[in-house]
Each structure stands twice: as C-alpha cells, then as structure tokens.
Specification:
single chain, 412 residues, alpha/beta, Rossmann fold, 2 domains, 8-stranded mixed β-sheet, 5-stranded parallel β-sheet, 14 helices, 19 strands, 35% helix, 23% strand, elongated, binds cytidine-5'-triphosphate
C-alpha cells in the first residue's frame, strides 16, 4: 500500500519515527512529508533513512514529478501524526501552502489524523470545530490519549501510541471510517507479575508468575488508546514503553498501590499473582542455621484479597456499573469440581465483572509465551474462549473489556 505520512510540528514527531517503522515493516511504501516546523523536531535525514524515500515539503522540489498532485492522488492512505492544532485548522480550511496541505486536498483515499497538542488547544472551540468539519467530510480523527504532556501538565492531548495509530490506520483502510480506538480516553490499571513476601532480608516466598500476560495486557490496552498504569510486582520481562509503571514487591504494597490507582480508573485488571499468605514474622536479620536448634517453622498469615476489596470499595463509592473490574483465576480441576465450576464460584465470591480463567499445571501458563483462557462474565453472558500468544489473548481480553465498558459506561 502507498502511504503518505504527514508529520506535524510538535514534540510528538519523534514518536512518529516508530510509526513509520511499523508501516515499512508491514511492507508498505511510505512517503514522509514533514512540515517545516516538524523538521525542527526531527530532521529530514531521519525520515529519509527510515522510509527509504526522498523527503521534502516544498512544492518546488522535483517539480517535473508534479508531487503536489501525484502524492495525494496515488496514496492509498494519508496519515497525519502528530496532527497539530495548526495542521487541523489548515486541513479544515483547505489551505494549500505547502506540499503536505496540497497532498491532503488531492487525497482520494482515507485520511487519518492523530492529534497531539496541549489540552487547552485540543478543547478550544476552534480546534473542536475543525475536528467536526474534518469528520463530517469523512476523515478519521482519533481522540488524543490522556496522560503526561510535554511539560509537567497532563490531560487529553497526548499522541496515541504508534501501535494504536497503526491499528486505527489499518482499520480505516478496511473501510471502518468511524473507527475510534476502543479504550480511547479510558484509564486502565493493570497489576502484573508475582508478589514476593519476605522472610528475612535475603529470602522470600514467591511464585512462578512471569508477568508476561500482564505486560501483554498493558501493551494491548495502550494500543487500544488507554492511559495505562502498570502495577508491576516481580516480573521476568520489562514493562512496555508508553505506560506509567509503579513498582511493588509485596501483596500489601500492591494493595496500597491498587486501591490508590483504582480510584481514578475506568478499568482495573488484577492479573498479578498475589500471594494469599505472607510469613507472620519477618526477621530483620538473616535467619541462620544453628546446630541443635531444630528445623525452623514458618507461620503464615492471610494477605488481604485485593480484588475483593477493590470490588467492595467501588460498590461502596457508588461506582458499580461505572468501573469495570477484571480478575484472573488460575484453576486446576479436582474432586470438588472442574475448572469452570471452580471459576464460576470464584467469580461470584470475588464479585468482579469479568474473570479470566487459566487452566494451570506445572508446565502450563507460567513463563510460557502462549496461553488459553476462558472469560466469564458476571452479567451471565456465555463464556468466551481465547487462545494463542499472550499478545493474542491480551487483545481478546481488551476487546471484550472495550465492549463491556461501552455497555456499562458509554463514552459521552
Ligand atoms: N488476588 C488478589 N488478592 C489476593 C489474592 C488474589 O487480588 N490476596 C487476585 C488475583 O490478582 C487474581 C484473583 O484474585 O485476579 C485470583 O484469585 P485467588 O483467590 O487468588 O485465586 P487462586 O490463587 O486461584 O486461589 P484459590 O483458588 O485458593 O481461591
């Protein structure tokens, strides 16, 4: 596919280098047209090297090729990222002062704008009117992501992550012009990895969770347009870019972080493997083996059930139906019931909206790159199966969350 990638003059231009890579790695032929201002942030050499094509924003370069007409005409898709307030205004007004705006006027295929600017600029009636105009003409304008902006401020105005723009672009080409990222504007808290419960300064009780599924969920939610807070217990994998990370060690630390983050979240996903028990006593000094002292015993006490507490707090705050809480269950069948029977009972016990059920054995799930789950819903909907890589499973869970959220708490 021939793609024109128009780059606006905003600090987020640097993220568009990754978007360009996603396009070229997927086999697309990309011509980058940066605005004059964009080249103040990322130079022409970067765009030329990454796209493998010459780069200009002048209608007077290579005039014999009539680029100001040809590029827009030949493009199967035009993507503008970051779409600054200035570029949106020029596009809405139909100005044609440079190669990029000429190309927009000549474009015959779908056009996608991925805005990025400060919250005030985005919410300004002038910008909103321009967005309306562009949408009414059939262009797709993504909602900007919410989160940290260039300075110390935060709010709606962040460029959606490159993967999210890529996904929206592909959806647009498939004819879904009203496509909005399913979790755009939503705040999603995800716990991942396994907690470690200390015995002494060097030892702990832990579990085999690698954090891979939680990280895959964070990536999928981020790509779906959400602002993601990852509460990371011990993980074998690095947290992804573009998410806010809070490190925790123990179940009690995770509890505090989860309750704190949940207060402002639309979705909470408890995919962490939380220790149900912790040593009753933690020694300040390393426990020594001493001849004749006998074998030590470890007494355990229950940890709070964070998932259950999140549900109770939400309900007490009157946010039931507005915040979606998702639990995970690792189950094996036994004499008391099969995997689904245990999971169904857990869903009722915990009171969460969705329960993602893993069938575990020592060689299954933990640390593996693939997974197979069943998603149970409190609403009583049919159990939904999802299998594949952990990224595939995460995408299925996030898609389901998007649908559930739209049902319980539609976007304005
Ligand atoms: N969870 C939690 N707080 C705990 C323990 C678990 O929030 N103290 C969450 C997990 O993150 C997961 C779900 O609860 O979302 C798992 O439920 P749990 O009761 O721990 O299930 P199992 O570990 O499978 O335990 P059991 O079957 O013994 O109840």
């Amino acid at each position: 596919m021939r793609i024109v990638l128009g780059v606006g003059g905003g600090i987020a231009a640097y993220k568009v280098a990754s978007l360009l890579r996603l396009f070229t790695e997927a086999g697309h032929y990309v011509t980058v047209i940066p605005t004059e201002a964009a080249t103040r942030f990322v130079g022409t050499a970067t765009w030329e090297a990454l796209s493998g094509n010459p780069v200009s924003n002048s209608v007077f370069d290579d005039v014999h090729q009539v680029n100001h007409v040809r590029l827009g005409h030949e493009a199967d898709l035009v993507v503008i990222a970051p779409a600054t307030a200035d570029l949106l205004a020029k596009a809405a007004a139909g100005l044609a002062g440079d190669l990029l705006t000429n190309t927009l006027l000549m474009a015959r295929g779908p056009v996608l704008f991925a805005p990025a600017m400060h919250t005030e600029m985005w919410q300004h009636p002038a910008t909103q009117a321009n967005v309306e105009t562009l949408r009414s003409r059939g262009a797709a304008v993504l909602e900007p992501a919410t989160g940290r902006l260039t300075g110390t401020d935060s709010g709606p105005g962040r460029l959606p992550e490159p993967e999210a723009i890529f996904e929206a672009a592909m959806a647009l080409v498939q004819g879904r012009s009203d496509y909005q990222l399913p979790l755009a504007g939503r705040i999603v808290t995800i716990s991942a990895g396994g907690t470690r419960e200390p015995l002494d300064p060097v030892r702990f009780l832990g579990n085999r969770s690698s954090g891979k599924q939680g990280v895959a969920l964070a990536v999928a939610a981020r790509n779906a347009g959400a602002t993601v807070r990852l509460l990371a217990a011990h993980m074998d994998v690095a947290p992804p870019a573009g998410v806010e990370v809070v490190r925790v060690d123990t179940a009690l630390q995770l509890r505090d972080a989860a309750l704190d983050a949940a207060a402002g979240s639309d979705v909470v996903i408890m995919s962490a493997a939380v220790a149900d028990f912790r040593p009753a006593e933690v020694s300040d000094t390393k426990i020594k083996k001493r001849d004749g002292a006998g074998d030590p015993m470890i007494a355990l006490v229950r940890n709070p059930d964070i998932l259950h507490e999140l549900v109770e707090r939400r309900n007490a705050a009157g946010r039931a139906g507005r915040q979606l809480i998702v639990g995970f269950a690792a189950e094996t069948g036994d004499d008391d019931g099969d995997v689904l029977a245990h999971a169904e009972a857990k869903l009722q016990r915990k009171g969460c909206d969705l329960l993602v059920v893993n069938h575990v054995g020592t060689d299954r799930v933990f640390g593996q790159d693939t997974n197979s789950v069943v998603i149970l819903a409190r609403s009583g909907a049919e159990p939904q199966e999802a299998a594949g890589t952990k990224a595939d499973v995460a995408a299925a869970i996030v898609a389901r969350i998007g649908l559930e959220l739209e049902r319980v708490s539609p976007r304005p």
